[in-house]
Specification:
By secondary structure, the chain is mainly α. It has helices at 3-16, 32-37, 43-60, 65-84, 91-108, 115-133, 142-169, 173-194.
């Protein structure tokens, strides 16, 4: 693998394992721009959203829109659950499990995906949405905040798809597996800190 790609991945991993994994600044500010920037402030959310896009491009081929659509829709469901005040136990553990799960998916690099895999992506998306939804009732403009967050989520998926397409086009077959190993390692690090 190209040395510059290896260095870039090492730098990304170093930032990912800094102490800010669950730090999401800007709570209480409820407008479109704060919502749009919020998914960029937590490495756990950011990593999963990019990984889903990357994996979709690498594995799903013509149906690459399916995991992205399922994630986005289930995340909205999680947002609504969080806003409604319904208790969802262990949301942070669900988010951490999603990081590990996406890393394992990238490492496996199988062509196509089962309905169970797509369902699990949707299941984990509920936790991501819920974690944000519980904050939204205190926002001054919760609908604008949620819309901004949704837009950024879709853009992160698209960025992941673009990276996956470039990787496939350049025949960098090991990149997905390497990213998967790093993401799973990051998820295990989060799990240790979350127990």
């Amino acid at each position: 693998m190209n040395k510059s790609i290896t260095r870039l991945l090492a730098i990304m991993f170093t930032f990912a394992v800094s102490g800010s994994a669950f730090a999401h600044p800007g709570h209480g500010i409820g407008n479109f721009f704060s919502g749009a920037s919020h998914p960029l402030s937590g490495w756990d959310h950011l990593t999963v959203m990019l990984a889903i896009g990357f994996w979709s491009a690498m594995v799903m081929q013509k149906r690459l829109w399916l995991p992205v659509t399922v994630f986005a829709g289930a995340m909205v469901l999680g947002l609504l659950l969080g806003m409604s005040g319904i208790a969802l136990a262990s949301a942070e553990l669900g988010i951490t499990a999603s990081v590990i799960f996406m890393g394992l998916l990238l490492m496996s690099a199988r062509q196509g995906a089962s309905i169970l895999t797509i369902a699990l992506i949707g299941f984990f998306a509920v936790f991501h949405g819920y974690a944000h939804g519980i904050e939204m009732p205190q926002m001054s403009e919760p609908l604008a905040y949620g819309t901004g967050m949704f837009c950024t989520t879709v853009l992160l998926h698209l960025a992941g798809i673009a990276l996956g397409r470039v990787s496939t086009h350049l025949r960098m077959d090991r990149l997905g597996r390497l990213l998967g190993a790093m993401i799973s390692g990051f998820g295990l690090w989060l799990l240790v800190g979350n127990i």
